[in-house]
Amino acid sequence: MSRLRTRPTRDDTREALFEAAARVFEQDGIGGASIEAIAAEAGFTRGAFYSNFKSKDELIFAMLEDHVERSIRRNMEILAQHRNLDDFIAALKTMDRARQDPLARSPLLHIEMILFVARAEKRRPELAKRLRARRKLIADIVEATLRDSAKGETLNPPWMASVVLALEDGFRLHRLIDPETTPADSFLRAITDLRRRTGLATD
Question: In order of start, what are the domains of the chain with their CATH numbers?
């Protein structure tokens, strides 16, 4: 009886390359990482790499896109179950980090990849698209959880999303620099405090 061979799907191959690239980038740096090293780390050949990505730059863009898509999917799944902002934040705090993608697990690598791409001016529009997608996600969450709850104040979800996103990125950077005084839940704690102090009740 012949043994049935199961070939990895395209999605499986891409995910393996993402994970391998993250490890190689962290070890060798983004600039020093070679396609050969990434493919070998994933257990593939150069041909397998090039059947999925034309270059290392394209791989990086795909990793950033995957990170944004996963973030949107995770948050919308939580929002579907928790329409109250306090409950939503509590669910984020207990979210299984092991299910997240390499960039969510390694904020330093995430920032390094963004800076690597941003150094080339022609690449910035691609980063802007991802930034707008993150803002829209937060604006949708703000609108869904705080609708008609601002006690007479007119909510501006897009602007609030920009503020929240800047706050999140700032805390991520502060935690990398000074983790002793910047707990892992600093961002979510700050959102909770701001909501309560500004009177944005969710009852």
Answer: 8-53 (1.10.10.60), 56-197 (1.10.357.10)
